[in-house]
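Form 12-C: Joint structure prediction
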Amino acid sequence: MAILIIAEHDNSTLKGATLNTVTAATQMGQELHLLVAGCDCQSVADEAAQISGINKVLLADNPVYTHQLAENMAQLIIELSEGYSHILAPATSNGKNILPRVAALLDVGQISDITAVESADRFQRPIYAGGAIATLQSLDAVKVITVRSTAFEPAATDNSAPIEAVELQIENTLSSFVSEEIAQSDRPELTAAKVVIAGGRGMGNSENFSLLEQVADKLGGAVGASRAAVDAGFVSNDIQIGQTGKIVAPDLYIGVGISGAIQHLAGMKDSKIIVAINKDEEAPIFSVADYGLVADLFDAVPELEQKL
Amino acid sequence: MKILVAVKRVIDYNAKVRVKADNSDVDLNNTKMAINPFCEIAVEEAIRLKEAGSADEVIVVSVGPKACQEQIRTALALGADRGIQIETDDIPESLNVAKLLAQVVKNEEPGLVLLGKQAIDSDNNQTGQMLSALLGMPQATFASELTLKDGKVQVAREIDGGSQTLSLSLPAVITADLRLNEPRYASLPNIMKAKRKPLTVTTPETLGVELKTHSTLIKVTPPVERSAGILVNSVDELVEKLKNQANVI
Ligand SMILES: Cc1cc2nc3c(=O)[nH]c(=O)nc-3n(C[C@H](O)[C@H](O)[C@H](O)COP(=O)(O)OP(=O)(O)OC[C@H]3O[C@@H](n4cnc5c(N)ncnc54)[C@H](O)[C@@H]3O)c2cc1C
Ligand SMILES: Nc1ncnc2c1ncn2[C@@H]1O[C@H](COP(=O)(O)O)[C@@H](O)[C@H]1O
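Section 2 - Result
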């Protein structure tokens, strides 16, 4: 049986999380189909067709899918679901929004945020903010799964799979799009960056985050934050790292003025190298840091920027 | 308009979870339990809507063993009007919870159904979406702002790239994110008053819902612990280590 993967995209480019999800799918089965649903998104389908392992791209290009709202997206996936053993999406805000509806309409459970595939029906996932790892056996005929992208390598892109148009136009009479504010940044995407420098409450205010931006720019990295920094209004919500924010696993994570609460660690403790800069030597973040520097960040960060 | 809020009893967010020695599950014996933080935010929002005159009754529902009445009482102390406990031996999987809640929604006919975006024990992030699908209602997940107007609800949602605003017809299902509001503390008089507020107990059988098993828990293991590294004495030493030892810059 085949596997249906829901592509993550913004109508113009395919998002990297799709590639990691494809890798997870290859560990569950052979025949992989990728659904690109959106509006004026041919360029996304063209990119998707290059992903190794994909046998077919399904392209539902219609104004009704412009904002990929959950109500009709879920219904579209249901209409296409016949014959699939697995339906997968990246555990992005879109995937999390849409996929549980698909599961409920199929009367099956959803396995959220998997981090390892043991077999076609056995998966690992973190629970309790990563405080424990559960291994689950799915008993459902169709496995509906979201995939944590940092746990799987991205698939290669040396393919040219056929693209098949899906003509289904499913209206959404329940909800409508009003507006969107998408943060613009020239830095790499937080969840895919090789270097992440994150600031916490210790940053004091929003202006001080420019100290971190300067370091990020030297290292080609992205800037993240703790919940406390977001709640205090220093930075916007889309860069919160943690149990209920983004999951990152860069080669280098630098936490600045962050104490290291379990909810924050849940989002970064799989980073390869962790650096902590904090003036309190008792801060729990030091217990997971490869390199700790006990210092005032307002001295240490400018010096770091200078010496890189 | 009635507002229905689903609240889950979970481990307190400050408590450390232990895995049982036989790896069969986590060990919650003698662990401090609390109302799921996201559910508390949902309760707060419902109460604020009532205080603003947009709602006239706030009903809280919890699915689980008798102990979850504690969390219902907490919500009543914060200002909810009455509670419903759906009695089950253990807390069932999300789809079962969604089916039970759907039945209560059909009986109570609320204009809004509020849930937390995620339970901090299972970290599932799915019950609200499932409930909304089962009821054929619109949904807004990860809500950071909610406004009722002209018979609709406008919701700002936290999404990966920033934020998005949707307009939903009513009745609708909304799941609360962290920044929707800051919950109040219950006052002592309100905690006393909550003890006399109505709390009814029902069962899956009475609601006509058959619970199913969708997955089995094979094992639960502790995560791989990171060991602490070293403290460096200066920025120079840090840069040197990152270059020559860790090879990451
Ligand atoms: C349901 C729930 C979900 C949550 N989800 C998340 C999540 O996804 N992500 C997340 O991050 N948190 C989350 N939290 C919050 C989490 O529990 C912590 O409150 C939060 O991570 C603390 O942020 P912080 O480390 O920036 O602040 P604090 O804990 O206040 O730490 C600030 C640190 O800065 C240091 N400092 C201050 N000034 C300086 C200076 N000049 N130089 C150097 N160091 C300095 C201090 O020593 C301190 O260690 C969640 C909480 C709940 C209840
Ligand atoms: N046993 C339960 N009883 C009541 N509400 C629940 C229960 N389980 C989940 N919920 C609701 O669904 C939300 C999301 O939970 P979950 O999908 O399990 O992460 C929670 O914040 C609650 O509002």
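Section 3 - Comments
The longest helix of chain A spans residues 93-106. Chain A touches chain B through 90 residues (CB under 8 Å).
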